[in-house]
Amino acid sequence: MTSVPRVLAVLDELLRGATGEERGALWRQAEQGRELDANLVRLPPGGAVGAHQEDVLDVLLVAVAGDGRIEAGGESLELTPGTVAWLPRTSRRALAAGPDGLAYLTVHRRRPGLTIKPPASAPSVPAPVRAPSYEGGEAPCMLDLVCPGCGRLSRDPEPVFCSRCGERFAQG
Q1: What predicted TM-score, i.e. pTM, was given to this entire model?
Q2: Of 63, 100, 124, 129, which residue is 20 to 30 A from 3 by alpha carbon distance?
């Protein structure tokens, strides 16, 4: 099968279809075999994505509608339509929408598969001597760490916003 270029979305149409208070991902790139991920994210007027850090991927953020700012490293970077910002991996940042809201496109390499690593300080646990008779309990429920918008597992033990799509986690 040969790959061919194609139109995936028309951002203006997606934004026109969004309600005034709608937030989160309005569109996600979902084609099989891709090497990139892209999301159109909308924050309502005064909305925010709390301080977070992406440890694995650099992210390109393109403001497409409204206005807002990125708070990072003690600086405030203004976002207006057409502004392109680079968010390097390991950088800590927060986003805030202005009075008209903010819509932005994020583009990054496709995420590696989900991995769950023990904390760096966790001691190594030897394998049980009689593995066939060993019975462990059920794994802890981690559903409260799964983003309701995109399904990403948060590394933050008490997440407020998803670092991938900006969706708010349920506060329980």
Answers
A1: 0.63
A2: 63
pLDDT tens figures, 44-65 = 999 999 999 888 889 999 999 9
Tell me which residue of 163, 13, 22, 16 sits closest to 101, measured CA to CA: 22
128-159 pLDDT, tens digit per residue, is: 544 444 444 444 566 677 887 777 787 777 77
| Tokens representing residue 70 in the block | 């990125």
Three-state SS sequence of the chain: CCCCCCCCCCHHHHHHCCCCCCCEEEEECCCCCCCEEEEEEEECCCCEEEEEECCCCCEEEEEEEEEEEEEECCEEEEECCCCEEEECCCCEEEEEEEEEEEEEEEEEECCCCCCCCCCCCCCCCCCCCCHHHCCCCCCCCCHHHECCCCCCECCCCCCCECCCCCCECCCC
Tokens of 53: 């850090």
